[in-house]
């Protein structure tokens, strides 16, 4: 047997088994607490809201489990048979085109198998709970635009990467990393200027009273923004949210129209103060530095592994080439990297607590508590997650923990 192939199969099954077990725990825990609204929330969340959140959470968990199983089946089939067969076809195409072709071919089955799950998520689950506003037409055009964007952006990058592997020294990965860092710096601008407008309409915030409150808040926080916009998120979903994007002077604040429709001005201000907290504590900057460092380590590992004779042999591949080498290296990294997700989630949750605390100091605990409670209620987020599930998978702390922190700090 081929040692890396065995390791990959075992790791895939172990990780998937662990995920299914966690999902099962979460579904059980939520069901067990379905009929009792936590005391802290009884005033704002009705029993019907609480049950709806429980049912929504369980429906999504069940779908995630099914999707995860399908994903593992596809990836194992690709690794055990598919990749080598595909490489046999693309090997006859001259480099770097053959390499690009192999990466493209290998990345098709996953999304194709995932598509029915996305359709089910939007048109069955989201629809049943009243969130989905997408028409089949919007769903299809979103999909098509996404594919075109991937081709327009991805293909030249892949070509450049494989050209670099063929023509630069064995330090090609260092050039690739410089390219990745440049992309990370350019991404917010490219996204705002060229990509986001393909999907949504952004208009300057029209409500003058809210605008002047937000501008005063930004001034108090020392935040310079190049614009305050609303986004027509309601054409796809009634889930509410807000974000800011960009850095330097070109920062933009975007409020979903769905958020403005459901929250009071005090609450919108609290949500924004939380977002400004991320800026104040440089969470975006640290995130980018972490991303650049991770990319460096991964690319260095790719660069080293691609030169090792055991890499392709270890998977029992009969073909060679840069693309198959890169894919094999990413499979090796995939054996261990799921273990890192809980760490990045833990960092992210600490940042959320810090941003909440910043918002509390800026606008007070009450509007933040009621904004969080309302967001959780309106988005049908569960107030009673399984503690272990939340510890491993949540990028945001459970709302009861956030509310408890806000209340404790205010007291
Ligand atoms: Zn946040």
Could you please describe the fold and organization of this structure?
The protein is built from 16 helices and 4 strands. The chain is mainly alpha-helical and 411 residues long. The chain has a domain of 150 residues: Metalloproteases ("zincins"), catalytic domain (Zincin-like). The chain has a 4-stranded mixed beta sheet with strand order 1-2-4-3, with helices on both faces. A hairpin with a 6-residue loop joins strand 3 and strand 4. Helix 3 packs antiparallel against helix 5. The model has no long low-confidence stretch (mean pLDDT 91).
Q: What is the CA-based Rg, rounded? A: 23 Å
Report the β-strand fraction as a percent range.
Answer: under 5%
The strand line-up of the biggest sheet is 1-2-4-3
Q: What is the CATH C-level name of the domain at 202-284 and 344-410?
A: Alpha Beta
Q: Given the C-alpha coordinates, what overall shape results?
A: globular
Tell me the span between the first and last alpha carbons. 63 Å
Q: Could you estimate the helical fraction of the residues in percent?
A: over 70%
Whole-number average pLDDT? 91
Name the structural class: mainly alpha
- Main sheet overview: 4 strands, mixed
State the CATH superfamily name of the domain at 202-284 and 344-410.
Metalloproteases ("zincins"), catalytic domain
The number of helical segments is 16
CATH fold-level topology of the domain at 202-284 and 344-410 = Zincin-like
Number of strands: 4
Ranges where pLDDT stays below 50 over 5 or more residues in a row are none
- Give me the CATH architecture of the domain at 202-284 and 344-410, please: 2-Layer Sandwich
Which cofactor or ligand species appear? zinc ion
What is the ordering of alpha helices and beta strands? HHHHHHEHEEEHHHHHHHHH
